[in-house]
Design goal:
Bound molecules: zinc ion
Helix content: under 10%
Distance between the termini: 30 Å
Number of strands: 6
Strand content: 35-45%
Structural class: mainly beta
Oligomer: single chain
Strand order of the largest sheet: 1-6
Order of helices and strands: EEEEEE
Length: 77
């Protein structure tokens, strides 16, 4: 028989750069494609009526959903 060793494993948090935003913590808004505004409608002449994007509120970027805006992902190994 062998001894069952109960070595305490320490989980070390390792910070890794987010692959999605590459450490930026934000990514271009997928709704307006980083423009900050979207075409809401067109007037009688066919001119586009642009308005503030509802997805990013005109900020052009949204918080990265993968890292939550941190830019890093904490992994436990
Ligand atoms: Zn947007
Ligand atoms: Zn990210």
């Amino acid at each position: 028989m062998w001894e069952h060793k109960q070595g305490k494993k320490k989980e070390e948090p390792v910070k890794r750069r987010c692959h999605r935003c590459r450490g930026m913590g934000r990514s271009p808004c997928p709704i307006c494609n980083g423009a900050g505004e979207v075409i809401k409608s067109r007037d009688i002449l066919g001119k586009p009526i642009v308005g503030r994007c509802e997805g990013c509120f005109g900020l052009k970027y949204i918080r990265c959903t993968v890292c939550g805006g941190e830019g890093f992902l904490t992994e436990y190994i």
